[in-house]
Amino acid sequence: MASVAAWLPFARAAAIGWVPIATHPLPPPPIPKDRRKADDEKLLINVSGRRFETWRNTLEKYPDTLLGSNEREFFYDEECKEYFFDRDPDIFRHILNYYRTGKLHYPKHECLTSYDEELAFFGILPDVIGDCCYEDYRDRKRENAERLMDDKLSENGDQNLQQLTNIRQKMWRAFENPHTSTAALVFYYVTGFFIAVSVMANVVETVPCGLRPGRAGTLPCGERYKIVFFCLDTACVMIFTAEYLLRLFAAPDRCKFVRSVMSIIDVVAILPYYIGLGITDNDDVSGAFVTLRVFRVFRIFKFSRHSQGLRILGYTLKSCASELGFLVFSLAMAIIIFATVMFYAEKNVDDTNFTSIPAAFWYTIVTMTTLG
């Protein structure tokens, strides 16, 4: 009866000419539950008394894991008709969601060691953790490794060297994870405040603040209140310099730290100030000093230390470097092709602006990025 009701709308549509009458026989009726294929079997998983239900096909999407392979049959209970695992049911909930959605999440409230043990037991690699949770997992992993290193150093090693190493490790942990202590959190917000002040001062000092005395033109605030902006810039640079030196002292690998992107940003942010102190008011070097002050805008990138979203964006761009490179290559090829076409189409026109293929690049780029 149910199958007839399902086909009734199609019969009515065929009667009024919406769809042609089917020339083939009706499909077979639904398969009863007792004759359903084994591939669609619903499995019952008992994890320390808490029961979970899922489809067999859901688990077999990942055959390299314990639940997705035939190894799960070793845990099958014939009497209860279920799979029994004497494991943590709270963490297993996230593992089962990985089979359902293909995305593995890291619960922040769970112990990292227990989480890794559960993943290892079920044969899941931590590399599949989603981008939304990977940074938290990596930070907790680094903290755990540092604590293990502290314990190892406390067992053997020279006491003086150990004390110095512990100080450096605590400082580095405070810089990388400011929520570990109150002092680290205060320093985190203080540096963030001075970064914002420095960026705002760099913008405000270009705003006109009146007319030049005895000359035409407006006088920017940076020249009108030169001493105020200089003192403000000096305070910010002193904070940035102290932060950089402390990070350099506490870094586990100083050479790697100096070559890192964030270290280069820190140096570029403070270097114009110290070079400007050594440049005199000579007109020959004034132009170079003005150009050097442009690099102060790189201080805005220091916000990436204080923003988890910016760090995730950086990791995403790094992981997609090959795809982005192919996109840039494709755009460059299109620009060269269309610029060549425009040059040969317009080269015989009087007073043409397309004097060469490179001269046609600008028209091509503007057209592609605006009109499409």
Automatic annotation (TrEMBL):
Gene source species: Timema douglasi
Q: Its principal location? A: membrane
Name the record gives this protein: BTB domain-containing protein
> What subcellular locations does the record give?
Membrane
Lineage summary: Eukaryota, Metazoa, Ecdysozoa, Arthropoda, Hexapoda
On the tree of life, the source organism's domain of life is: Eukaryota
Q: Name one GO biological process term.
A: protein homooligomerization
What molecular functions are annotated in GO for this chain? A-type (transient outward) potassium channel activity
* UniProt-listed Pfam families: BTB_2, Ion_trans, Shal-type
List the Gene3D superfamilies hit by this protein, alphabetically: 1.10.287.70, Potassium Channel Kv1.1, Chain A (3.30.710.10), Voltage-gated potassium channels. Chain C (1.20.120.350)
Q: Name one GO cellular component term.
A: voltage-gated potassium channel complex
**Residue limits of the BTB domain?**
41-140
What topology does it adopt in the membrane?
A: Multi-pass membrane protein
Residue intervals passing through the bilayer? 183-204, 224-245, 257-279, 324-345
Q: Tell me the InterPro entries matching this sequence.
A: BTB/POZ_dom, Ion_trans_dom, K_chnl_volt-dep_Kv, K_chnl_volt-dep_Kv4, Shal-type_N, SKP1/BTB/POZ_sf, T1-type_BTB, VG_K_chnl
**What SUPFAM superfamilies does the entry give?**
POZ domain, Voltage-gated potassium channels
Which UniProt key words apply to this protein? Ion channel, Ion transport, Membrane, Potassium, Potassium channel, Potassium transport, Transmembrane, Transmembrane helix, Transport, Voltage-gated channel
